[in-house]
Amino acid sequence: MLETSARLLRLLSLLQTPRDWTGAELADRLAVSTRTVRNDVERLRALGYPVHGTRGAVGGYRLGAGAALPPLLLDDEEAVAVAVGLRTAAGGSVAGIEETSLRALAKLEQVLPHRLRRRVTALHTHTVRVPHDQPGPTVDAGTLSLIGAACRDRERLRFDYVRHDGTADRRDVEPYRLVNWGRRWYLVAFDPARDDWRTFRVDRISPRTPTGPRFAARDLPGDVVDRVRHGVSAAAWRHRATVRVHAPAEVVADRINPAVGTVEPAGDTACLLHTGADRLETIAVWLGLLDLDFTVEDPPELADLLRTLAARYLRAAG
Q: Which residues form the HTH deoR-type domain (predicted)?
């Protein structure tokens, strides 16, 4: 039988698994009686661990959330994962958590066994981060927490927002999802004033508190990640094009990245591809990669460019 202190740590480790444990299951794992399990649970409670218990045939024990954060027991892989995550967060895109992350990492590394500390140190020492081509914007950790809570609680979110062109206005929306893409964070929300879904960059949001009233949940408009990809790309396009592709919409959708364009059915054997890019030459490359017949509907400059490229390719093949 384990000594009392070792048994308590083992019991705590089992209770940190997100499930309900019956007294009999815990007794079997610890090789003790159910009475000893009950006594050990009371000891944990006296130490400040919120162990919840329910009676009955389906009752059991579960570690709940308490007023204070009790010590956690991590296995080797969990400890390394947390250390790597804290190190990454210290150099991430969320402002205000760099120092906190390093403080937490220092505490963790101080108590890591030597074998694990060597693994974490080796990974940090021999890893080189490639800097981003352009410095990405940072978002405030408090703003992320506020938006996340509003999404969870289904509360209207009021904020001042700076548009892509630098103008500002005030929004009152129903928040649904936060999307993290590289160093940027986006909010997908329904805007009742515009009766449509909108995507907002979080680094351009200045929340107004308190949050608004609760709202009834709506069905999300498809894949929110694809929506953000397309919305972000389209906002930066200098050139836009509409192309009729002579193939079913589902065939074209399988060959096109959502960030490149959207596909609109136009009968059983054709569809319209709405796309764009900074350069018309880029659109021409994407259309070539489709490996499908198509007709340019707009703009005429794209059709002219394709004629020029076609003549160039014919000369190259001659």
A: 4-59
Q: Which pLDDT tens digit goes with each residue over 262-308? A: 888 999 999 999 998 889 999 999 999 999 999 999 999 999 999 99
- Give yes or no for a contact between 174 and 194, defined as CB atoms under 8 angstroms apart: no
This prediction has a pTM of 0.58
Pick from 147, 136, 258: which is nearest to 202 by CA?
147
Amino acid 181: pLDDT: 77
Do 186 and 200 meet the contact criterion of CB atoms below 8 Å apart? Answer: yes
Cβ neighbours around 232 below 10 Å, total: 16
Packing angle, helices 76-90 and 98-111, rounded to 10: 150
The model's confidence at residue 195, banded by pLDDT at 50, 70 and 90, is very high
Q: How far apart are alpha carbons 152 and 205 in whole angstroms?
A: 18
First to last CA, the chain: 86
Structure tokens at 295: 């007709």
CA distance 173 to 155: 9
The neighbour count for residue 166, using CB atoms within 10 Å, is 6
Give the 3-state DSSP-derived string for 3-51, with helices as H, strands as E and coil as C: CHHHHHHHHHHHHCCCCCECHHHHHHHHCCCHHHHHHHHHHHHHCCCCE
Give the SS3 label for residue 245.
strand
Question: What span, in angstroms and rounded, lies between the C-alpha atoms of 318 and 316?
Answer: 6
